[in-house]
């Protein structure tokens, strides 16, 4: 079995090498997102890239209130969720895969006196506030800001923007046409831009609520709304992932996105700007996924971790091959034994056959020698094994030859006396 078994081992090793660069089974991943800003374009671009580079199917799920999908993520009903990094932490199967892009807090206010409001407390107190959704992230931010300024409950939420005094909107940079509905409003600035780095209000807010950071909307970004730089706050949009997803899956996701970063930058220049080794991980609502940490810390998954599925299949194939080899070896050994048994039977027939004349004896000796030569040829061709059975055959061969010769001598002696 030696050479055949080695050839089989080499063949299975070649198969393993061939399969090591691909997934053996097609996996399906479910990505959920809210259709706002660049989200839809981001997700469709990601779907195209991932399905092209890996043996996966990406199912995109458009949701209205992504915060409600945190429970679905924890329950493994979805695998990834594009969400603001402002969700209250709760124990569950949720982690952060990467930072996608920043969103900026836009606070528009209506002021009949046309005077600029410079204080958030004055802006909010006893005013009607419009949020797109009452249970949105904007509402969580509003509650935190009200707590910071000690004005909790001193405002009213309304569902009609035309009846509002203040509009709060968290988004990426707003397109010019979207600003037309807000032509009667002004854009609120928390601080004078010159105060940043000098203990400004936004720095105090950021210190207390570390998931928000100061941001300056440059002068002229929104036409008349930005006659001067606007100081506001930014919140990261992150890709959340099931915590129990394999390290390799999330690690490959990040590397693939960055390898194709130009495809995303064309959607929005700030996409994945936060995906770097030095970002503050303590500011995440949910802990970093182990696959993301491995990427950021430049710890590549090991061979067994990356090819766990392949290793399992290869191991099963190897076990099957070894089992087959053992069975084949036993079959060959039994077949060789059966062949030796044929030679045994021939010798026993000779031993049990009487010699009536000298010529009968010569024919028996010739037959014994012919069978012996045939046995040696089969041994050379590996059709017989040089084992204990063959040794016994040779002993029996010698013994039978001796017996025939003794019978021939006895016959010759009897004939000479007569």
Topology of this structure?
Layout lengths: L1 H18 L7 E8 L4 H15 L2 E8 L6 H5 L5 E5 L9 E16 L10 H5 L3 E3 L6 H12 L7 E3 L7 E6 L14 E2 L13 H8 L4 E5 L12 E13 L4 H13 L1 H5 L24 H7 L6 H4 L1 H44 L6 H23 L7 H30 L1
Parallel strand pairs: 1-2, 1-3, 5-6, 5-7
Antiparallel strand pairs: 3-10, 4-7, 4-8, 4-10, 9-10
Task: Summarize, please.
Helices cover 45% and strands 17% of the residues.
Structural description of this entry:
With 418 residues, the protein is of the alpha/beta class. It folds into two domains: 21-306, 3-Layer(aba) Sandwich (D-Maltodextrin-Binding Protein, domain 2); 334-417. Helices cover 45% and strands 17% of the residues. The chain is built from 13 helices and ten strands. It has helices at 2-19, 39-53, 70-74, 120-124, 137-148, 201-208, 247-259, 261-265, 290-296, 303-306, 308-351, 358-380, 388-417; strands at residues 27-34, 56-63, 80-84, 94-109, 128-130, 156-158, 166-171, 186-187, 213-217, 230-242. Strands 1, 2, 3, 4, 5, 6, 7, 8, 9 and 10 form a ten-stranded mixed β-sheet that branches. Helix 2 (39-53) links the parallel strand 1 and strand 2. Helix 7 packs across helix 9. The two termini are 59 Å apart. The relative contact order is 0.11.
């Amino acid at each position: 079995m030696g050479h055949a078994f080695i050839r089989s081992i080499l063949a299975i090793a070649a198969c393993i090498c061939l399969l090591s660069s691909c997934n053996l089974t097609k996996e399906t991943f479910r990505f959920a997102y809210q259709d706002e800003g660049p989200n839809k374009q981001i997700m469709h671009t990601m779907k195209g890239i991932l399905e092209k580079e890996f043996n996966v199917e990406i199912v995109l799920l458009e949701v209205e209130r992504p915060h409600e999908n945190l429970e679905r993520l924890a329950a493994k009903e979805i695998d990834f969720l594009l969400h603001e990094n402002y969700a209250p932490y709760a124990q569950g199967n949720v982690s952060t895969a990467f930072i996608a892009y920043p969103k900026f807090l836009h606070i528009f206010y209506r002021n009949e006196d046309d005077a600029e409001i410079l204080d958030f407390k004055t802006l909010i107190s006893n005013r009607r506030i419009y949020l797109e959704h009452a249970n949105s992230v904007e509402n969580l931010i509003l509650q935190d800001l009200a707590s910071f300024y000690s004005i909790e409950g001193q405002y009213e939420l309304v569902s009609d923007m035309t009846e509002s005094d203040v509009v709060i909107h968290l988004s990426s940079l707003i397109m010019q046409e979207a600003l037309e509905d807000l032509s009667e409003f002004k854009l609120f600035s928390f601080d004078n831009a010159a105060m940043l780095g000098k203990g400004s209000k936004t720095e105090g807010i950021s210190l207390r609520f570390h998931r928000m950071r100061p941001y300056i909307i440059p002068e002229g970004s929104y036409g008349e709304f930005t006659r001067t730089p606007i100081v506001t706050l930014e919140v990261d949009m992150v890709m959340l992932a099931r915590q129990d997803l394999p390290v390799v899956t999330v690690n490959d996701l990040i590397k693939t996105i960055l390898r194709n970063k130009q495809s995303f930058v064309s959607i929005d220049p700030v996409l994945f700007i936060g995906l770097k080794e030095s970002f503050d991980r303590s500011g995440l609502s949910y802990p970093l996924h182990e696959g993301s940490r491995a990427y950021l810390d430049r710890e590549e998954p090991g061979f067994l971790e990356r090819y766990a599925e392949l290793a399992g299949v290869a191991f099963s194939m190897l076990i099957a091959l070894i089992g087959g080899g053992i069975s084949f070896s036993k079959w060959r050994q039994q077949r060789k034994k059966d062949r030796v048994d044929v030679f045994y039977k021939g010798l026993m027939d000779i031993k049990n056959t009487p010699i009536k004349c000298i010529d009968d004896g010569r024919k028996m000796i010739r037959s014994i020698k012919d069978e012996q030569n045939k046995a040696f040829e089969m041994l050379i061709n590996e059709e017989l094994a040089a084992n204990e059975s063959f040794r016994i055959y040779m002993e029996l061969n010698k013994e039978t030859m001796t017996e025939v010769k003794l019978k021939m001598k006895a016959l010759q002696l009897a004939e000479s006396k007569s």
